[in-house]
Design brief:
eight-stranded parallel β-barrel, alpha/beta, globular, TIM Barrel, 13 helices, 433 residues, two-stranded antiparallel sheet
Length: 433
């Protein structure tokens, strides 16, 4: 989840980017028992049976800057944005994603955010279209389109179908509500967010799978004719992932449909709790969750030794917390965005605001993974062997574009192979459908 930006001056600060929402709940007493942490497995386990994992290279395309404004979202004036710098950044970011495919990453991830310096990708489908013609093997995961933010979700169905056909069936479609600040940026009513999400998702899935034309008469979306051309190449439809921070409603919705659940920028004990809830929900719906339904998005920094990696991670990670995710408090929790049940649980043990999170806390609680190749391998085994996660999404940040490419190569050569036994077998086939 780390992304290096081109320097705008000699003193520019490199950045990382990540997605985080206001929804966080207190673990139950039973959920806190025997939860894993990095200290449990910080030793070499060569020769043991290591679970396989897929690796996806994730990007948010931030615009790095330091400022004294109270928020990096919604109200930060776009006078700070230099299009010439932005042009350089976009090309560097696309180069990194293309290089990830060349190095063996299984997928490439893009994302949607609006009106901020944290992530300058308001249309992930546009970036996915660029990648379709510049790549040939890797999955292209759009994580995701903010369904409730669109007045015409049928357009999402059409664009994803176009990308799926043009890419030869390599597209993954993430369905998200969008973090709370997006509702200020788009003028959308957060109290309707979840209902609009469910209705838009139903419309898109039907548009992909049912022969048209047919009418759709929803509460928020109405069409006399649903009949999109083209139809997706993948059958019955492109895989759908659900990025989230652990709301019980999303866990239930995703598990019922067998959609992979992507935990985004979350402490490791919280991930263990939500994975447990997701597995239990899958059992209630009559099946056992595949490890490839359990996906995690975690920042990774790898360097020649632990000290160097810590230095890089400390400098770069704190930008996203202290600057990139700096917001007015009301932007985090607008009325109606969270359900009453989720809000009550969150208020019992409110998480720190990202701007208040220290590097030591991020390290201790497992928000980030950093170290030498050996250390990073050990930390990732917590995800593969204990949490049983099947897919890790992350980017890299070396401190410059060139150093980032070098870090990506180091990771691909000295970390990824340990998790690649039978990697040619695609156990993800059918997952997300």
């Amino acid at each position: 989840m780390f992304f290096i930006a081109a320097s705008t001056s000699a003193d520019s600060v490199p950045t990382v980017a990540a997605t985080i929402s206001a929804e966080s709940c207190r673990p139950s007493a039973t959920a806190q028992e025997n939860l894993p942490h990095f200290g449990d497995t910080c030793h070499e386990t060569a020769g043991t049976d290591v679970a396989r994992m897929k690796f996806y290279y994730f990007h948010l395309m931030p615009y790095v800057m330091e400022h004294d404004e109270p928020s990096s979202w919604v109200t930060l004036s776009n006078r700070f944005y230099d299009p010439k710098v932005g042009q350089t950044l976009y090309h560097q970011y696309l180069d990194q994603l293309e290089y990830a495919e060349a190095l063996g990453w299984d997928g490439l991830c893009v994302n949607e955010h609006h009106q901020n310096c944290y992530g300058t990708m308001p249309s992930p489908n546009v970036m996915a279209a660029m990648l379709v013609r510049r790549t040939s093997r890797a999955k292209i995961a759009i994580l995701g389109n903010g369904l409730p933010l669109r007045e015409n979700p049928l357009r999402i169905a059409e664009e994803i179908a176009m990308l799926d056909v043009a890419s030869g069936g390599r597209v993954i479609s993430g369905f998200v509500r969008g973090i709370s600040a997006e509702y200020f940026s788009t003028g959308s009513n957060p109290t309707h967010s979840r209902e609009r999400f469910y209705e838009a998702a139903e419309l898109i899935l039907r548009a992909w799978t049912e022969p048209g034309p047919f009418p759709f008469d929803g509460k928020y979306y109405r069409y006399h004719y649903v009949n999109p051309w083209p139809r997706p190449l993948q059958k019955p439809h492109p895989p759908v992932w659900c990025p989230s921070q652990g709301s019980s409603e999303t866990v239930e919705w995703a598990s019922k449909r067998r959609f992979p659940y992507l935990m985004v920028f979350t402490p490791i004990k919280r991930i263990a709790q939500i994975y447990g809830e997701y597995r239990e929900a899958c059992q209630r719906h009559g099946y056992t969750a595949s490890r490839y339904q359990l996906t995690v998005n975690v920042p990774i920094v790898v360097a020649e030794n632990d000290a160097k990696a810590a230095e890089i991670a400390k400098k770069n990670t704190m930008w996203v917390f202290n600057t990139g995710l700096r917001m007015h408090p009301p932007f985090w929790r607008p009325p109606g965005y969270m359900t009453e049940a989720s809000l009550r649980r969150m208020l019992q043990n409110p998480p720190p605001l990202p701007s208040e999170l220290t590097f030591e806390q991020a390290d201790r609680e497992g928000y980030i993974v950093y170290g030498s190749p050996a250390t990073v391998r050990d930390k990732l085994r917590v995800f593969s062997d204990e949490l049983k996660a099947g897919i890790v999404c992350s980017g890299m940040n070396g401190g410059s574009h060139e150093a980032t490419l070098e870090m990506m190569q180091l990771f691909s050569e000295e970390v990824m192979p340990d998790f690649r036994e039978d990697a040619e077998v695609d156990e993800t086939a059918g997952v997300g459908r």
